[in-house]
Design goal:
This protein is an alpha+beta fold. Helix content is 33%, strand content 30%. It has one domain: Nuclear Transport Factor 2, Chain: A (Roll), CATH 3.10.450.50. Residues 23-139 form the SnoaL-like domain.
Length: 159
């Protein structure tokens, strides 16, 4: 299981002091659903059709309602949409315990080392993803080169 906030003793979960393992379980199952090509299970982890998924490309900002038709072929073609394996995750909660923020490091076969961050809200159906942002961290040593490449690509696509 991935690490969360930890101290010597684990307090009893309450509404104001939620259990981070519940958030880990939701996110782990969400990633597993994509790896298993389970479209319904994957999208049932979102709060609603207005929840946001942000991909790595600047054009990839979707509501869930927009993301579903875009991603459906990935789920149907191979039985595996994509495979993100969390290697580290940190979870934080609001004071009243109904909102969770997280950031995670991911191992991915197609993107390499990646990072996800997002927000979950707790409702009557448990923890649900309201916002997810997938990124590819760029080492500072090569950021100037990458910025130049992005600017060149944008110029070419605008012609």
């Amino acid at each position: 299981m991935l690490g969360a906030c930890s101290s010597g003793e684990k307090p009893e979960p309450t509404a104001a002091n939620p259990d981070p393992e519940e958030v880990h379980a939701v996110l782990d199952d969400w990633h597993a659903a994509a790896a298993e090509g389970d479209f319904e299970r994957y999208f049932n982890h979102f709060e609603n059709d207005s929840s946001i998924f942000m991909g790595t490309d600047a054009t990839e900002r979707w509501t869930v309602a927009e993301f579903k038709p875009w991603s459906k072929p990935y789920f149907e073609d191979d039985g595996v949409a994509w495979s993100f394996t969390p290697t580290f995750r940190k979870v934080y909660f609001s004071d009243e315990g109904s909102t969770a923020w997280f950031d995670e490091e991911l191992d991915t076969p197609n993107l390499g080392p990646s990072r996800g961050s997002g927000v979950l809200v707790k409702n009557a159906n448990g923890w649900k993803i309201a916002h997810y942002n997938l990124t590819i961290p760029i080492p500072n040593a090569i950021v100037d080169t990458v910025v130049h490449m992005v600017e060149k690509e944008l110029q070419q696509s605008n012609q």
